[in-house]
Amino acid sequence: MPRRNLLSIVMVGVLNLVCLQASRGANPKDEMMELYGLFVDAVEQVEANYVHPVDRRALLESALQGMLHELDPHSSYINTSEWKQFRRQIEGRFGGIGIQVGSDRDTNRLKVIAPMVGTPAYNAGVLAGDVIMEIDGTSTEGMNADKAVEVLTGRPGTSVKLAVLHEGDEKPETLTMNRAIIDVPSVLGDKRKPNDEWDFMLDKEKKIGYVRITSFIQNTTQELKKALSELKAEGMRALILDLRNNPGGLLGAAVEISDLFVEKGMIVSTKGRNTISKAYEAQKDGAYEELPVAILINRNSASAAEIVSACLQDHDRAVIVGDRSYGKGSVQNIIDLDDGNSVLKLTVAAYFRPSGKNIHRFKNAKDGDEWGVSPNNGLKVELTPEQFVAWAKGRLERDLVTTGKRKPKAQESSKPEGEKKDDATTETEAEKKPEGSDASKAEKKEENKEAAKPFVDLQLDKAIEVIKEKLEHPVAQK
Description:
Layout: H1 3-22, H2 30-49, H3 56-71, E1 76-78, H4 80-91, E2 93-96, E3 99-104, E4 109-115, H5 120-124, E5 131-135, E6 138-139, H6 145-152, E7 159-165, E8 173-178, E9 180-183, E10 187-188, E11 191-192, E12 198-199, E13 201-203, E14 208-213, H7 220-233, E15 238-242, H8 251-259, E16 266-271, E17 278-281, E18 293-297, H9 304-314, E19 319-322, E20 330-337, E21 342-352, H10 385-399, H11 423-432, H12 438-452, H13 458-472
Parallel strand pairs: 14-15, 15-18, 18-19
Antiparallel strand pairs: 1-21, 2-9, 3-4, 4-5, 5-6, 5-7, 7-8, 10-14, 11-12, 13-14, 16-17, 16-21, 20-21
Helix pairs in contact: 1-2, 1-3, 8-9
């Protein structure tokens, strides 16, 4: 039997199981019992006759996934192994050492993309570009990033040893560090200070602050308050809030953040078939109700990011710059299954802007329909695919911690003291070395050329222009 047909039968059967569970105490309909019987028959036939042995749990989990996928793209079944990772995403916390890792194709080992500021790895001297040769004496040859995360995370307080090869070194250095609770930051700036912390003041002369929220998790509100407090102490006069590529997150965090900038009125309302309709109102104690604000969004700004953008736009508290948002106006609840070891992430309601307008982009919705959040008149800055890729790559490189606690030896001058180092000459000489093939040399030149390109952010430039205009010609806030 084709896999698609099998999954269709299983989906129908599992849907019936859910309905049966919900209707305990009532007489089930004949159709329900027939479908339930069909499902059981199908499972038994697969188990008995499929060409290979099958795992019953895997089969049923696939059925659940298929059933929920038929509802909408945001409802899903999360099994036991996926649940821990999902919780980490929501909470933004885990026990580990605080590094981003990838694969190094030259050595077939793990490579440190960047350490996170203030973490055990950062404090121990792990540097961006380090190749991890061993973890607790076990070679990392052939180890993928997922396996590395599994090995490096663990109970806070436990120790782990990394043998790391710094760029330019011939022998690895063994570094010992204790795992700790790692708080993954969701509030970032545009550039870093010399100590690798974020510098949130974008324009020190005009006193324009810049804060980027990458997701709405449990700590986001507190992180944002801290950043805004720093900016306020530095004399901030206006703010650019960057929500581009923000996929959303917790509804509560979006409401709390909106409340910082809105004096009164509705923030967002939710309505569902089997849930109580609710309206979230501003609490009239926002600390930044008069601050001029520009919000940056793009086609990947979704859910909670759209709640904040729509709220501040509808209350005339911010101008929206960039591109039209994604259009995800639905609320998912987490429903425990299997004694909490697995869960359903189920769409239970839709949310609406303070104006009452719809945000969700339904199936077959057209560009002319009402959905998402659009930039204010004259403030749309749409990037071409090539411009978007260049911006995304540049933004990623700009975010990485490249210094650490000490400089890699490869960055130190090898010339005698007092002799002036000519970087341009050194680079030219390096290119003349007969190392590797002509193709690898050409590739290295291209990489250097890419790295030399200045970071261009057309949407941010437009937001800065708008904010400067507001500071020069202020108008009374409504």
